[in-house]
Each structure stands twice: as structure tokens, then as C-alpha cells.
């Protein structure tokens, strides 16, 4: 089982727990990752569900009047 990590949602600012992901990196990609920021961006499950619902509604065709 993975280790639990607390992260802050970039949309609402709520703190939530996720499982830590183990990264497997090729030697060639190590140089690219050294330049990248260390913190990962995260979205909480509530905001993720809200975004998904809004996206699905935006894809629907409007009902004729």
C-alpha cells in the first residue's frame, strides 16, 4: 500500500489526502526533472467531479425550444 500524502487543491485550497506515487525515471529524463518544480499540482476529488460534470454539460447539445 502507498503512503498517504497531504496536498492542497489548486482550485479551492482545501487540504486532502492522496496516496504517494512512486516515480520510475529513465536516466535521460532525470535532467529534465531537475529543472521542474518539486511540488506537484493537485485537484481535490470534489473539484475534479465538479469540473468533469461541467465539461460533460458543455458537450451536450442544447435542447430545442
What does this molecule look like?
- There is one protein chain.
- The protein is an alpha+beta fold and 65 residues long.
- A two-stranded antiparallel sheet has the order 1-2.
- The chain has a domain at 1-20 and 42-58.
- 2% of the residues are buried.
- It has two helices and two strands, in the order ββαα.
Quick take:
The chain is of the alpha+beta class and 65 residues long. It has helices at residues 27-35, 45-59; strands at 4-8, 15-19. The chain has a domain at 1-20 and 42-58.
Q: Which tags fit this structure?
A:
65 residues; alpha+beta; 15% strand
SSE topology sketch:
Blueprint: E1 4-8, E2 15-19, H1 27-35, H2 45-59
Protein name: DUF2197 domain-containing protein
Structural class: alpha+beta
Mean pLDDT: 79
- Could you name the ranges where pLDDT drops below 50 across 5 or more consecutive residues? none
Distance between the termini: 53 Å
Number of strands: 2
The secondary-structure element order is EEHH
Rg value: 18 Å
